[in-house]
Specification:
By secondary structure, the chain is an alpha+beta fold. 33% of the residues lie in helices and 23% in strands. The radius of gyration is 23 Å and the shape is globular. It starts with a helix and ends in a 15-residue tail after the last helix.
Length: 426
């Protein structure tokens, strides 16, 4: 089921064709077939059958009680205007996510529209943020897809210009490093993007459309803010329609030329002051931390998965089998001659964000790995054309990933060796 057929169903024929002009990579094959056959009644019947069977997510409902001997439910209310919500987000961007940095607001797309907000993620990918306002589900989704086609084509100099209009006299690369603690690699800018619809309420139609698009590998999500009153005061809560890890993973593996995933996981290991590959090999782990964006994709891994590890800027350094789930540094144990030992007691060649060990969002997270074969950090496998991605873990579907794994299997000849059976670490 493609984005095109979904758009026909939800947006109507005229609106769908307008969106398709902006989404040629998604739309052209099926739209061409539709133009040739004009078998629309049968086509609509078919899509309706699929949509009826499509999985739906649970509605977002938040409630807040005042603490006391008799807890009191706070009544829900609404903001005076959705413009107020946009102003609040600009004033406090972490209302959206600590993983993103705002870089644009009310930017002209050049074809009769303005995006509400634009943000950048730590890997240089872009986040298009659209407030639902008083638009219908059909309108907000159609417009978001239309704007996404504009975002997709932004080049590095376009993005820098957008930021200079948003924050005059500031430099994007400088502010990126301040915000994320790492350099902005120009070649990584806008390699992928995602859509986030912001709403003060969520209707069933928007929920159904967004859930269905996400199931079809379109990186889209809804962030729902609900407002509550407590006398003269107002409070606001935040809830995602879909798990952000799901949207991040979809965005990281979408390039318009996708093929079925080959079952091989990619992992990025950030060698440096925070973590050390020698420790990872000795004690059997991969890890990431410093923020949710870096650590949450570790949750994609489960025992038995094979993972190929790349040290960005260096090359591929190992392949192994996952033997347990992601755990925070405070609880992650490794086997030593003294028995099970806390990882922070023995992994001494990196900081592993020890200062954040009690912060469950920013601390280091570890996944245990049984190594099949590794090489030194100073002697990695590298070369032109090998796949790379700054997400900690992803399930690549780009053709380059298939060819990369084919080459790595020749370099790491023990990639499929049998390991002794050991209990999985939970």
């Amino acid at each position: 089921m493609s984005l095109v057929s979904i758009a026909f169903q939800f947006l109507g024929n005229k609106d769908a064709r307008l969106v398709f002009k902006k989404l040629k990579n998604y739309a052209e094959p099926i739209y061409t077939d539709y133009a040739r056959t004009r078998a629309l009644p049968r086509f609509e019947s078919f899509t309706q059958t699929l949509l009826t069977k499509a999985p739906t997510s649970m509605p977002i409902q938040t409630a807040i009680w005042r603490i006391g001997p008799q807890p009191q439910l706070l009544p829900s209310t609404v903001l005076a205007t959705e413009r107020l919500l946009e102003d609040m987000i600009v004033a406090a961007p972490n209302m959206l996510s600590e993983d993103w940095m705002l870089i644009g607001r009310q930017e002209d797309t050049g074809f009769g529209g303005r995006i509400d907000l634009l943000a950048i993620a730590p890997d240089g990918s872009l986040v298009l943020i659209e407030l639902k306002r008083d638009r219908t589900p059909r309108d907000v989704v159609a417009q978001s897809l239309d704007y996404a086609s504009w975002v997709e084509k932004l080049r590095s100099d376009d993005i820098s210009s957008i930021y200079s209009r948003f924050a005059p006299e500031k430099n994007l690369a400088t502010e990126f490093k301040k915000h994320f603690g790492q350099d902005l690699v120009e070649g990584s800018l806008n390699q992928d993007h995602q859509i986030v619809i912001v709403s003060s309420s969520l209707d069933d139609s928007t929920e159904r459309i967004v859930g269905y698009l996400s199931e079809r590998k379109i990186a889209i999500n809804v962030l729902c803010f609900q407002v509550f009153s407590n006398g003269p005061e107002q409070f606001i809560s935040r809830a995602w329609l879909l798990d952000p890890i799901q949207t991040q993973a979809v965005a990281a593996t979408s390039d318009g030329n996708n093929e079925p995933w080959n079952g091989e996981f990619y992992a990025s290991f950030g060698q440096g002051p925070e973590r050390d590959w020698g420790d990872a090999v000795q004690y059997g782990f991969i890890c990431a931390g410093g923020g949710i964006w870096f650590s949450r994709t570790l949750q994609l891994l489960k025992p038995g998965d094979r993972v190929w590890v790349n040290a960005p800027g260096r090359g591929y350094v190992g392949v192994g089998r996952v033997s347990g789930r992601s755990q925070p540094a405070a609880t992650f144990m490794v086997k030593t001659q003294n028995g099970d030992t806390p990882i922070l007691n023995v992994a001494t060649n990196g900081s592993y964000h020890r200062e954040l060990v009690d912060n469950r969002e920013r601390c280091e997270y570890f996944v245990p790995v049984k190594w099949l074969q590794t090489v030194s950090i100073d002697n990695p496998i590298y070369g032109v054309g090998l796949f790379g991605n700054q997400n900690t873990v992803c399930k690549p579907t780009a053709p380059k990933w298939r060819s990369t794994v084919d080459r790595l299997k020749k370099e790491f000849r023990d990639y499929d060796k049998q390991l002794p059976e050991v209990p999985a670490m939970e």
